[in-house]
Design goal:
This protein is about 45% helix and about 15% strand. The mean pLDDT is about 95. By secondary structure, the protein is α/β, with parallel strands linked by helices. Strands 5-2-1-11-10-9-8-7-6 form a nine-stranded parallel β-sheet. The longest helix has 22 residues, at about 120-145. It contains eleven helices and eleven strands. α5 (about 120-145) links the parallel β7 and β8. It has helices spanning about 20-30, 45-50, 60-70, 85-105, 120-145, 160-165, 180-185, 190-200, 210-220, 240-245, 260-275; strands at about 5-10, 35, 40, 55, 75, 80-85, 110, 145-150, 175-180, 200-205, 250-255. The chain has one domain (about 5-275): Divalent-metal-dependent TIM barrel enzymes (TIM Barrel), CATH 3.20.20.
């Protein structure tokens, strides 16, 4: 049986217009043991101006690791979402993210199939995803990093759909990053049944709650959402989620996905009591 730890996706400082290092400090103050940075290629104006939390993979990954060490937090995963159906983007992006994650001390790189090209068929998309995942998995195996496939887009919005992507490439480096909010909003499969189904392949979990108002407006109409409400304020039964994940063979970080600091604080307080 694995253990459950609490982390926070760096999206929680997005609406505060704060940089990565400010977010690390705040996460540690709240009490989180882990953080999940979002990474990008090249240079991005808002991040360079220190108004945004995303980290460039041109920056030294050991700088990020040292910053986390200073505040006694660890990196649970990288948010490295890139469209698997577009290998001209995803192959080199994922390879770099995996190498960066290894140096930064992150055991997981999270991604999904992304929005598909408008002109490709389903058959072609699956061939493209196979190529991308095979290339990425070869690097991940060398570096000891897991690729976490997340339910988030057109093909992964159901239990069977996520399985169909997972099954494309047989590799010990490929696992599941389950997102409680995305799976609920997709409305195709019971959230807890789906979690039970992937529990033995779970490498990371996005702890995302969905407000009752968003549930009423969007469930069955979307395949996911960037962030949720504070854990405990919405529709997700967190005790049930925790009871399932406690049976997972791996240690799992619940990476809270919210859009502001007050929601991150309430999520930490709610989940801490249950865990």
């Amino acid at each position: 049986m694995g253990k459950i730890f609490l982390g926070v996706n760096m999206e929680f400082v997005r609406h505060h217009d704060r940089p990565f290092d400010w977010g690390i400090t705040k996460a540690a103050e709240i009490g989180y043991q882990y953080v999940e940075p979002m990474v990008h290629w090249g240079r991005e104006l808002l991040s360079e101006a220190r108004y945004f939390h995303s980290v460039s993979m041109y920056d030294d990954p050991r700088w990020a690791r040292d910053l986390c060490d200073k505040h006694n937090v660890k990196i649970s995963a990288l948010s490295a979402h890139t469209p698997l159906c577009k290998p001209e983007v995803s192959v080199e992006y994922l390879k770099l993210a995996i190498r960066w994650a290894s140096d930064a001390g992150a055991p997981v790189v999270n991604t999904d199939e992304g929005p598909k090209p408008e002109w490709t068929s389903r058959e072609m998309d699956y061939q493209l995803m196979t190529y991308t995942l095979k290339e990425a998995s070869l690097v991940a195996e060398r570096y000891g990093v897991k690729i976490g496939l997340e339910p988030h887009q057109q093909y992964s919005k159901s239990m069977e759909g996520l399985d169909s992507i997972y099954d494309l490439v047989k590799s010990p480096s490929i696992g599941i990053n389950y997102d409680t909010g995305n799976s609920y909003l997709a409305g195709t499969t019971d959230t807890y049944e789906w979690l039970n189904h992937v529990n033995d392949r779970l490498v990371h979990l996005h702890a995302k709650d969905i407000s009752f108002s968003q549930s009423g407006e969007e469930r069955g109409k979307v395949t996911g959402t960037p962030v949720g409400c504070a854990c405990g304020d919405g529709v997700v039964d967190w005790k049930r989620v925790i009871d399932i994940v406690k049976k997972c063979p791996n240690d799992i970080v619940f990476s809270v996905e919210v859009g502001n600091v007050p929601d991150a604080i309430r999520s930490f307080e709610h989940l801490s009591k249950l865990i």
